[in-house]
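Bug report

Summary: structure tokens for 3-oxoacyl-[acyl-carrier-protein] reductase MabA differ between web form and batch submission.
Environment: batch mode, default settings.
Steps: 1) Submit the sequence below via batch. 2) Compare with the web form result.

Sequence submitted:
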Amino acid sequence: MTQRLTGRTALVTGSSRGIGRAIARRLASEGATVVVTARSMSPSRSLRDGQEHVLEGTLEETVQLIEQAGGRAVPIAADLEDRDQRAGLIDAAADAVGGLDILVNNAGFADYSSIEKMSEATFDRTLEHYLKVPFLLSQAAIPHMRKSGAGWIVNIGSSTGMSPIRPFREYNRTSGDVIYASAKAALHRFTQGLAAELVDDNIAVNAVGPSTAIMTPGAATLLPEGYETEPPEYLAQTVLEMCTLPAAERTGLVGFSLHFPWSQGIPVKSLDGKDELPRREPPAWCNPNIADDGLRA
């Protein structure tokens, strides 16, 4: 293994399962000491459309997977909807591992509903998770990164944050993802604007989203039956690539998980970093607003 992140420290939010767990494992496989965080140490409960759902996966399981592969991880429970808990998360993470080089804003909330039927509470909660929380955590992380002379912030975006394919697909007519997608579009713009503000401090800010979708415990009820999904390894690899170069060389990008490695000829490794996965061409039905180089057009 190349161990490109040896000596680096990282915080990955929403890393008890799914995409966050995959990213934490991949960063750890390259030598980073990773702080993994989620709402609690036990399986999470998510309220959607008035119904409570228990989502499998815990921080302890993520730590075990990382340690079994020879890496190091530290769990910190923090509810990002709680003002006090999120206010102290960055400093707690930096204290636990001796600084903070990498921040991955992955934690999220999705409760799809048509505009006509969506509650104001769901609207507010969606915007809080995908714009306010990344703003607050990035704001708190900047002094730590500036102090060390370098840093990397990666926000998890989405192809839904781009204009929908025309003529409108059935998905766009019926999925109810408009507010989620609007929040992701705002996150893309936040990424690019913050990158401009921090490039002279050698702090890179990039966004990475799935080229299609990734099946996770949280997304299972939102994806239509039969929807073609992609393995999380390609997104985790793309996030890693956004955490390895100085800001002057790679910042302000909105990249996509199948397109970026494919177009750049980047080998994709397993989450433990030991095996190389097959090259995976993006399917033809992906959003055409993703450019050939794997970035937002």
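Above is the batch result. After comparison, the two runs are identical; trailing whitespace caused the diff. Strands lie at 9-13, 33-38, 44-48, 51-55, 72-77, 102-105, 151-156, 203-209, 254-256. DSSP finds eight helices and nine strands in the chain.
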